[in-house]
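Complex 426.
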Amino acid sequence: MVEKRKPMPVEDAVRAVMKQTLAAETEMLPLAEAHGRMLAEDLTADHDVPPFNKSPYDGFAVRSEDTTGAGRDRPVTLTVAGEIGAGSVFPRPVEKGEVVRIMTGAEIPAGCDAVVMLELVKELGSDAIELKREIKHHDNISFQGEDAKKGTVLVEKGTFINPGISALLATFGFAQVSVAKKPRVGIIATGSELLEAGEPLEPGKIRNSNAYMAIAQVERAGGEAVYFGKFNDDFDDCLQATTEALQVVDALITTGGVSVGDYDYMPAIFESLGADVMFNKVAMRPGSVTTVAAAGSKVLFGLSGNPSACYVGFELFVRPLMRTAMKSSRPHLKKQSAFLAMDFPKANPFTRFVRASSYVEDGKVYVKPAGLDKSGSVTSIAGADVFIVLPGGTRGYEKGMKVDTLLLEDTEGSEWPWSSIVPSYR
Ligand SMILES: Nc1nc2c(c(=O)[nH]1)N[C@H]1C(S)=C(S)[C@@H](COP(=O)(O)OP(=O)(O)OC[C@H]3O[C@@H](n4cnc5c(N)ncnc54)[C@H](O)[C@@H]3O)O[C@H]1N2
Ligand code: MOO
Ligand SMILES: [Mg+2]
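Predicted structure with magnesium ion bound:
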């Protein structure tokens, strides 16, 4: 008689995994290589941005009081005291009746309090200008600190370094950037039916897609993937491969062999390793057989062999642990609500994670399955940018209903998307 496994609610299973910690180290990288990594320290403004009042236009820096009363029929004439481009500073305070020819980005000279664009000025030779309008105090100035005030935390540690953050790092002088080291996540594919991508198909065999999908998922999550190869369903070979891999990684993913079949050796292998199994059944679909265990300081993720189940298992359980090791306080997939574009009439006692694509129509986000909605489907993963989350229950779901989705391509993440998932349709 096959052992009966007790399914754990998804939220509890995620919570159990998050009690583990992976090694969290940091390293210094040249700024030009930091894009796509996770910032290891908060980025705080150590000076104002801009650091001085500056001109947003090519024009003339003026003393606004000198233009009081100017109008179409009452032009004022002002003396050009000099000229500065961006990077230069006018050497003395500007006096009554004077203006300074100033280019975009240059510091506003002392004494001036506004800028007038070149196009609005009549130049009288190079020494004087004529103005036929009043210029108001503070017209056309980019103020010191208007973009960022000294002392403000601009980016929290654990944040994905996007191009804008690279710009901020440069702004604040970080030629070298402290980033989280990539967690090393190993991947082992198990299954006697597996061929590698370069091999021709044979009767009864399929190509190993999980390993390459998992490599890409590890990298998308910000980690370093270490692929150990595929192994036949042989207890000793798989035990040896798993034991060796665990020596050199922070976490290890195995795919396949976690169910109750005659050649599903992973549960016995986890036992031989003395690993502490947190759960071996989760109330989710696909991925109900997902098994996670702690092996000393390492975490072992026994993901399902079924491609869609393997994919979901990674995003729900492996990704947040990796992101936490990279100092993120938002390690989980980001949640967003959307409307169902079709019925899901069949009730399921387990929470479903439908690989789906989202699109906008009349300003509303709709979601529909990205392909065959089965655990064994490989094609539905390719077009998926979200999981539709359909909590388990006794009824199905109908087109037009508002549901929660989890975003797959987002880099921001969420603290804990699980508490308020839209409940089962009643
Ligand atoms: N009697 C029962 N049978 C099954 C149960 C159950 O509860 N009782 N659970 C089913 C569920 S749900 C799933 S999911 C699968 C899980 O299977 P395993 O994790 O043991 O994986 P395998 O048996 O090795 O393979 C399953 C399936 O996936 C294909 N596969 C495996 N590895 C790869 C790979 N690297 N790339 C692409 N495809 C892969 C494999 O050929 C099988 O078709 O068990 C159900 N059975
Ligand atoms: O674990 Mo299976 O993927 O539920 O289909
Ligand atoms: Mg199996």
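The pocket of molybdate ion (ligand 2) is lined by residues 285-289, 304, 306, 309, 375 (CB under 6 Å).
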